[in-house]
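This part of the workshop introduces the protein records we will be handling. Each record describes a single protein and holds just a pair of labelled lines. Instead of coordinates, the fold is spelled out as a row of discrete tokens. To make this concrete, we reproduce a full record directly below:
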Amino acid sequence: MEKAPLLPQTDDDAMSRRPTPKRFSRFHAAAFAIIFGLFWLARTWDCEHYDEGAETSAKVPLEVHIMSKCPDARDCLQYLVIPTMANVSDKIDFRLSFIGKTTEEDDGVQCKHGQTECLGNILELCAASEYPDPKIYLGFTMCLERDYKMIPKKALIEDCALEHGIDFDKLNDCLSKDDGAYGMGMLRDSVTRSAELNVNTSCTIRLDNKTRCTINDGEWVDCPDGHKPDDLIRDINRLYDEAKGWTD
């Protein structure tokens, strides 16, 4: 008998109509060429040896460790991580990791808030795997976290997938792949990483491979440089400039 997918199938969502583009005149084309030329000139001024690889390597590692059914994860993402990413995402190498406990039985994972949390963690890992752009999978994750008590209800997943341009069927396929072993493997690897880094509190933020801030039971702790978005943005800008050699 064919194994049923972990999430029910749904009909394809109707595609929204895009507005008809306005006519692009010669004047607009000329203006665009001038503006683009000025932008490129500004970018390359005194940068004869500009290296696209160096731009990538200068990005600052920002890693967030959470449990999907934890209110601190919701608050951490909503009040610090998302506002920060909205301002300096181009300077960040972002990673989302999960907290749990590995077990020897069937190479599984135990989650603090039960198996529904494990499934929520896997859902968010699947979103990151299928849609690697943090603007997509982090938005989807935040959408789930707002109603974390409902994870992994089908209606919530469908609504959040639709809101952030994620194909529900792709998530379903990821969850069902290899009879669930694929998703569980991703979760086990993620939980193992958090444990090896001695991270066991949701939510923990690590910046440049060091613990930057933690929220626990609604309280910000171990945040000597501040826990507001402006504080984190300041630190990211400083580290990015140092990596590129732009310090005074």
In short: The chain has one domain: 60-243. The chain has nine helices and seven strands.
